[in-house]
């Protein structure tokens, strides 16, 4: 039997010290984080490898060996964090401050807390001498917040042996409270994610004196095009995955049933987060025109942040955007790096069923659904290889905690840290015995 109170104390201690390592990316400097987590593995006699991908940036790969009757399970987490705007924080962001049952620090929810949950599960299974049917690979990667070139992309390209796994768990989904109703406990296991497709719109016109308006003002072209996009009514797209999502929510009484399509659509349209699962989103994020108050701008530019549903190609989307604008004075080009389109993977697998069973045994009123990550995660690089790579942080984040993702005063409650360690341990244990 596990002494959970002692494990909770250990987890908190590791978490606080981990948050004290500043891995803001850029520049990253994740090596000390890899060494910190690696030292905890080495102290238990676990085999570890540090792979340097760039100066002061390392991937940690630690492995518990199984008997080979099943293929490996990877527990993956990123060690870097997004930078902090310290003036908007009420406390230092890299001290791991514990206050009123909350642990504050950049990375608390994204995703050092989950890294600790994975590490604890990994260490406990080693200590217990559990006979494993498959390897467990604990993998801590740098550079997730800046495109992953020195992290997961590097690993997939240079070390196919490490990513040769049957399943993977990382961030991108998890539990939330207050979905639809106050006491709801909704756990979403992300099995796919949207595709980043930033577009740059450029309008070229004719310059001239500001005192003489003429019909070839590039800024006017651009504004007209943007208005066409902003007013664009696009219908909702239902995929087998989002239908499964709605069906499970409906079973739990948190959504109308799919047979009442109008009611479902109404509900979806009233929540920006839900709506993003059913349309290609389009968001005006950058504008640039003009050099002086009395000069008609010859060139005007805008960037729109588009996120595409799985299975939709960037080229098709750009054609649709051009069609909607219907103005050949506006050029539309891809502004984000073209990393290929994210693949979807099946959700009805041994890993999903295990997560479902463990969570429901722990909380009988919990609802577990396959979901989609609205942002981007490292899972996409593994899904491309056909690996069911799921996003799942096994705790119940409140709306306040969810705001911590790339936000100010990021924190995780100790209660969530404890829950996360217990659930992660049980999920991993069942997958390997
Ligand atoms: Zn993250």
Structural write-up:
With 433 residues, this protein is of the alpha+beta class. It has two domains: 4-173 and 370-432, Zn peptidases (Aminopeptidase, 3-Layer(aba) Sandwich); 195-234 and 280-341, Alpha-Beta Plaits (2-Layer Sandwich). The chain has 13 helices and 17 strands. Strand 1 (47-54) and strand 2 (57-64) form a beta hairpin. It is globular. The two termini are 16 Å apart. The mean pLDDT is 95. The structure holds zinc ion. Zinc ion (ZN) binds at residues 78, 110-111, 144, 171. Zinc ion is lined by residues 78, 110-111, 144, 171.
Q: Could you list some keywords that capture this structure?
A:
17 strands, 13 helices, Alpha-Beta Plaits, single chain, 34% helix, 433 residues, alpha+beta, binds zinc ion, Aminopeptidase, four-stranded antiparallel beta sheet
């Amino acid at each position: 039997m596990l002494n959970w109170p002692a494990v909770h104390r250990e987890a908190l201690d590791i978490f606080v010290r981990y948050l004290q390592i500043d891995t803001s990316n850029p520049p990253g400097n994740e090596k000390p984080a890899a060494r910190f987590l690696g030292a905890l593995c080495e102290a238990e006699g676990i085999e570890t490898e540090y792979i340097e991908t760039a100066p002061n940036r390392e991937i940690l790969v630690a492995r518990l060996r199984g008997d080979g009757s099943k293929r490996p399970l990877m527990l993956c987490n990123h060690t870097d964090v997004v930078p902090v705007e310290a003036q908007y924080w009420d406390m230092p962001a890299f001290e791991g401050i514990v206050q009123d049952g909350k642990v504050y620090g950049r990375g608390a929810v994204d995703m050092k807390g989950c890294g600790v949950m994975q590490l604890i599960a990994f260490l406990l299974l080693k200590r217990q001498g559990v006979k494993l049917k498959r390897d467990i690979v604990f993998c801590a990667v740098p550079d997730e917040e800046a495109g992953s070139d020195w992290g997961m992309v590097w690993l997939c390209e240079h070390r196919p042996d490490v990513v040769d796994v049957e399943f993977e768990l990382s961030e991108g989904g998890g539990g939330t409270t207050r979905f639809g109703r106050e006491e709801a406990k909704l756990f979403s296991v992300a099995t796919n994610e949207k595709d980043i497709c930033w577009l740059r719109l450029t309008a070229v016109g004719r310059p001239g004196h500001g005192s003489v308006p003429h019909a070839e003002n590039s800024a006017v072209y651009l504004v007209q095009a943007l208005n066409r996009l902003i007013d664009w009514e696009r219908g909702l797209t239902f995929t087998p995955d989002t239908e499964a999502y709605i069906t499970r929510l409906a079973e739990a009484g948190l959504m109308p049933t799919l047979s009442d399509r109008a009611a479902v659509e109404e509900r979806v349209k009233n929540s920006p987060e839900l709506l993003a699962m059913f349309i290609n989103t389009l968001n005006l994020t950058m504008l640039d025109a003009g050099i002086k108050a009395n000069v008609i701008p010859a060139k005007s530019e805008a960037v729109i942040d588009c996120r595409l549903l799985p299975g939709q190609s960037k080229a098709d989307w750009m054609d649709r955007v051009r069609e909607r604008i219907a103005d050949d004075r506006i050029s539309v080009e891809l502004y984000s790096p073209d990393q290929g389109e994210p693949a979807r993977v099946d959700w009805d697998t041994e890993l999903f069923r295990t997560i479902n069973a463990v969570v429901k045994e722990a909380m009988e009123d919990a609802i577990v659904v396959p979901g989609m990550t609205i942002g981007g995660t490292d899972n996409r690089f593994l899904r491309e290889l056909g690996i069911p790579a799921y996003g799942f942080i096994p705790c119940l984040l409140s709306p306040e905690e969810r705001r911590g993702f790339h936000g100010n005063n990021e924190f995780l409650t100790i209660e969530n840290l404890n829950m996360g360690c217990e659930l992660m341990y049980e999920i991993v244990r069942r997958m390997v015995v």
